[in-house]
Amino acid sequence: MFHVFVLFSLCFCRLIGVFGDSVSVMEGDSVTLNTDDTEIHEDEDILWKYGAENSLIAKIKKKKQIFSTYDDVPDGIFRDRLKLDDQTGSLTITHTTTEHTGVYKLEIRGVNLTSKTFNVSVYARLPVPVIISNSSHCSSSSSSSNCSLLCSVYNVSGATLSWYAGMSVLSSISVCDLSISLSLPLEVEYQDKNTYSCVLNNPISNQTTHLDINTHCRHTCAGTAPLIIYVCVY
Question: What share of the chain is helix, strand, coil (3-state, %, to 5)?
Answer without folding.
Answer: 5, 50, 45
